[in-house]
Amino acid sequence: MRLPVLVFDIETLTDLKSGAHLYGLDLPEADLAQALMKLRRQESGTDFQRLALHEIVCISGLWIDEQGSMKIFSFSREQHSESEILTKFLSIFDKRNPTLVSWNGSQFDLPVILFRAMYHGLSAPSLFDQGEIDQQKRYNNYQNRYHHRHVDLMDIMAMFNGRHFQKLDDVAHLLGYPGKRGDGAYHVPEYVHQQEWQKLTSYCEADVLNTWLVYLRWLLLKGQLLLNDYRDLVQQTIQFLSTQAQHADFLAIWRDTSQRTEFTAVDFISFPTH
């Protein structure tokens, strides 16, 4: 495993202002969301909005440094504008070149970050350079599907075949991990509108944690982690989460879901219930 590692995820809402501009709509804000959803259904048969119309409300990450220490963080609209969220996230790559890990990051998260950074007039060469500035990135950059600087687990585990794409929630559950804390519903608009920022960041961070756990299993499969090293990292993750009060429920659900597969049944053997 090449350290440091940054596992990340974003949460978004529809950018109503840009949507109104794009479609030439002059409607009250309360009616815009429904109008844009209807137009999108007519265009594509789905409610899922165009990538450029996803406004970022949270970016969460799990940082594992060269010594293996862990730190989890979130930049959200509680304290930052979208431009500030992006600036803070993108600045990470100006200082370091982590292995970036995501679930569907090449199809969704990174393209959305690209569009929104351009919308706000930001510059992010450390993330989007493909060798024009740093020639080494010509052969190993964050955009190329077959490079290893960005590991999109959904894409890789589907063997780069869209017909085999799986949901993170499903894969996490199958492997003995919590998934979306037992609740697969999408609550982001509700959290933002009700200003439940702790719930928003915990939701986003839970996806990051599930992605990290799946990544460890992927490295074990590939032989980039030996079994003992994998077990040690799982124990380290449990120990780390035991210090994070906001993820007590994630840890409790993980303790339960770990008992559903033979391989993960030993995950909490060193952490007995009290």
Keyphrases for this structure?
13% strand, single chain, 274 residues, alpha/beta, 5 strands, Nucleotidyltransferase, domain 5, 46% helix, 5-stranded mixed beta sheet, 11 helices
CATH level-3 fold name: Nucleotidyltransferase, domain 5
Taking the alpha carbons of the first and last residues, their distance comes to: 34 Å
Number of domains: 1
Number of separate strands: 5
Helix content: 40-55%
Strand line-up across the major sheet: 3-2-1-4-5
CATH superfamily, called what?
Ribonuclease H-like superfamily/Ribonuclease H
CATH architecture: 2-Layer Sandwich
Main sheet: strands, sense, barrel: 5 strands, mixed
Outline the structure in words.
By secondary structure, the chain is of the alpha/beta class. It has a single domain (5-266), classed as 2-Layer Sandwich (Nucleotidyltransferase, domain 5), CATH 3.30.420.10. Helices cover 46% and strands 13% of the residues. Strands 3-2-1-4-5 form a five-stranded mixed β-sheet, with helices on both faces. Helix 7 (168-174) crosses helix 9 (197-222) and helix 9 (197-222) packs antiparallel against helix 10.
SSE layout and pairing:
Elements: E1 5-14, H1 16-23, H2 29-44, E2 54-64, E3 70-76, H3 82-95, E4 99-102, H4 105-119, H5 125-128, E5 150-152, H6 153-157, H7 168-174, H8 188-193, H9 197-222, H10 227-241, H11 248-257
Parallel strand pairs: 1-4, 4-5
Antiparallel strand pairs: 1-2, 2-3
